[in-house]
Design goal:
77% of the residues lie in helices and 0% in strands. It is mostly helical.
Length: 71
């Protein structure tokens, strides 16, 4: 969830200020942990290997559907 690696902030100046103060009060070790968690999410979902795997699954599913329609 986003709580483990960042803050979800509604689009208002007041809420942004509240969340900014919260971030500034967060201990450095917790910020480091959040940073590692965020990098892991990006690496698992958005690096080139993950994108290639997603594309491969998509193409395979499209080909499978095409073969089923020929039967």
């Amino acid at each position: 969830t986003s709580a483990t690696f960042g803050w979800k902030v509604p689009a208002s100046d007041h809420e942004f200020g509240v969340k900014l103060l919260e971030a500034m009060k967060t201990p450095e070790d917790e910020l480091a942990k959040m940073g590692r968690a965020g990098r892991a999410v990006i690496r698992e979902n958005f690096d080139w290997n993950a994108i290639a795997k997603q594309a491969c699954f998509l193409y395979a599913s499209l080909l499978a559907k095409d073969r089923q329609s020929e039967c």
